[in-house]
Structures are given as C-alpha cells and as structure tokens.
Specification:
By secondary structure, this protein is mainly alpha-helical. It has helices at residues 3-39, 47-56, 79-92, 103-120, 130-143, 150-156, 161-181, 190-207, 216-245, and strands spanning 68-72, 75-78, 249-251. It has a three-stranded antiparallel β-sheet.
C-alpha cells in the first residue's frame, strides 16, 4: 500500500475516534450548553469552525450528536436548541386550538429571539429581576396544579426548573427592551380610539346576547392600550425584518418534522 494512502487512512481513523469520543462526552454536557445558549450564545469565529460543526453534524451516532440548523451572526442554533425552545413554549404559550407551529415557523421564531437577545447586549441595564420572575413561576404552578403540577410537566418534557426560569428571565428582558425601545414613540389619537370603539368594540358586543355596550368614556383607556400595543407589535415586526436584512443568517439544515 502507498505510504501516503496509509498515512491518510490512519489520520482519518484517528479523527473518527476523536469524533466518536467527543459525541459520547458531549451528551452529559448538552443540557447546560443549551441553557447557556439561551443566555450567552455560542460564537462561531470562522468558516473553518462552521465546517467542523457541519462535519460533526453527520453522525455515526445520531442519538448523540446535535444537528446544526443555522448560525445567526456567528451564533449557532441547533436541533437541540429548537427542541428546548419548543418544550418551553409548550408550557408558557400552549398552541391555540391544538394547532402547533411547523418546524420552520419555530426556527424562525428562535432566530428572532436570538436577534433580540443579541440586541440586549447593548442594553446592560435592561434585565429581569427575581421579583419579576417568581410571580410568573407561581402563575404557572397554579395553572398546572390541577393536571399533576408543574414539576411533573417539566419531567414529562425533559426540562429542569432552572431552564424554565432562565427562559422567563429572557422573555421579561425582551419585553422590557421592547417597551424601552418602541413604546415611547407610539401615540394613539382620539380619532383612532373612536374608530375602534364604533367599528370593532360595539359590533362585537352587539353580537353577544345580553352584553352591555359601555360608553366610550368607560373604555377609552383600555382601547388606547390595545391600539398602542398593536402599533408596538407592528414596529417590532418591522424592526426585525430590517435587522434580519443586516444580519448574517446562515442556514445549514432544515429542522426535523
């Protein structure tokens, strides 16, 4: 056998052993890495690192190795990250009418979440307090108390309470960022409030048998808040579209069905 060919074969064999060993040891660290991604992210510093991750994503042991889906400004999102976010969202925001998002929709939502998380690094003062996290945790405990309790649900989904708390922490921080970044620039005119009252609220209440139609003055503040939140949501959507256009989002694989 040619010496060069033999050396290449030996080198490939060593690399295969190293990859298998890395896959085996990675399993015990994976949960912590996924949680750290939600808070800190994983930096991909060069195309060579991306290539290496892609190679590792072709597993000899598929149950051990996580698939790389996308990189958002150099921070990777894996199949495990998507699964973790899906399970956390199943607790915080169950699918309406039993209709769940597709894998692509979930991934796009996770990309938006990562873009906002990255933006939060520019606003160090915006962060959640424990006094804000615990009430939401208690709400979830109360919500799921009648169906076995939150701890049982977490076990069924393969989650830790610390992961849920971390995700709530991130959500609250993003909510604060949105209120800080967009809410001050939103205004609602009296004409918009009146139009909403006449064109939406009154017709809806008239369709409900026995529902009393309140005077405009009684519901002005509620309507103003509804319209303001709609404008904030529109501003956030437009901002995300713009920031996506200026971000480096590299796709490597489609999410599993």
């Amino acid at each position: 056998m040619n010496t060069s060919v033999l050396c290449d074969s030996l080198r490939l064999g060593v690399l295969a052993v190293k990859a298998a060993y890395a896959a085996f040891t990675a399993k015990t660290r994976r949960r912590k890495e996924l949680l750290n991604w939600l808070r800190l992210g994983l930096v991909v510093s060069s195309p060579c690192v991306v290539l290496l991750l892609l190679c590792l994503a072709i597993p000899a042991f598929p149950e051990e190795i996580d698939r790389l889906l996308v990189a958002v400004n150099g921070r990777v999102v894996t199949e495990g990250d998507l699964r973790l976010a899906h399970n956390l969202n199943a607790i915080l925001a169950p699918a309406r009418n039993g209709v769940e998002r597709s894998g692509e929709e979930e991934l796009n939502r996770l990309i938006d979440l990562e873009l906002m998380r990255q933006e939060l690094t520019n606003f160090a003062a915006i962060k959640a307090d424990e006094s804000e996290i615990e009430p939401r945790m208690q709400d979830l405990r109360n919500k799921y108390a009648e169906i076995g309790g939150l701890p049982a649900l977490l076990r069924d989904l393969g989650l830790q309470e610390s992961e849920l708390r971390s995700y709530i922490d991130l959500q609250i921080s993003i909510e604060k960022f949105i209120q800080f970044r967009f809410r001050p620039f939103v205004t609602v005119s009296p004409e918009e409030i009146l139009a909403y009252y006449r064109q939406k609220l009154v017709p809806q209440l008239e369709k409900s048998s026995g529902a009393r139609v309140p005077d405009l003055e009684e519901v002005t503040s509620q309507i103003e808040e509804i319209l303001a939140q709609e404008k904030v949501n529109t501003a956030v959507d437009n901002w995300l579209k713009d920031i996506r256009g200026h971000s480096r989002i590299e796709s490597f694989a489609r999410p599993s069905a």
